[in-house]
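Would you be willing to look carefully at the protein I have copied below?

:::
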Amino acid sequence: MTEAALVSRLEGLLFFPVTASAPDGSLALDAYRTHVRSGVDAGAGAVFACCGTGEFHALTREEYRACIAAAVEEAAGAVPVVAATGYGTATAVEFARIAEEEGADGLLAMPPYLVNAGQRGLLRHFRALAAATPLEIIVYQRDNVVLTPATAVELARTPGIVGLKDGLGDLDLLQRIISAVRAELPGTSFRYFNGLPTAELTGRAYRGLGVRLYSSAVFCFAPEIALAFHSALEKDDEATVRRLLDGFYRPLVELRNRGNGYAVSLVKAGVRLRGLDVGEVRPPLAEPEPEHLAELAALLEHGLDLVGR
């Protein structure tokens, strides 16, 4: 793979599919294949398989391997497939090698498990992962991974580390990171994207920093709404942006904030509401309350009406 081959292919909406489960909790691979294929057909710019929305934390290595292989097969080279990896360094390397074996195009490095490491430790972790795989890596900044601008520069210098997904939402820090990397590594192809839950809500703020890429959980269950919003942002169609923010995305975020784990369980419920049985979330996550599912169904109908079905 050539230098920064992955990030040069990342355009459009980034699709983070849910991982389908059968009633007994086992992997429902056929439903997962259908979900991935429908996302690619709908116009996803990339498939990020087995990541946060895909319940990476709850998958066995065998399930992970099956999902990555299925995602690669269903994408069929039309868009890149990026696989999650994480936990401690040794385990992250194991997942990275599985992803490589199954044909993934790159990796999203999730925060290390449990520990709150310092900057030197984080740098050691991500550099060790990069040294162990030929797959290009995007580092996920959130929770216990909060980088200083100096650490971000060192990561950007590291062969194989090609981007940063920001799930922290500290725009002051992100601006300083972008500025430091730009100043220290002029001409770098290092990429950034907005990885906050329901990233559309902060899309304009991130674009003010030059960050245009974002992950869209809504694309999982309402690609019509997600694509309409993305198009409006690209065209500076302020009327459509405001209509969808006020009528759909803000209410969705307020609903999401009413339950722990709703950033995943509401998305999976949304996929079911659109007719594909992807099952329930796995423990320790829990399904949304019945009244919240009813609110999601009504909000989804309203959102589809806003974009003219």
Notes: The chain has a mean pLDDT of 96. The longest strand covers residues 136-141. The two ends are 40 Å apart (CA to CA). The chain is about 45% helix and 10% strand.
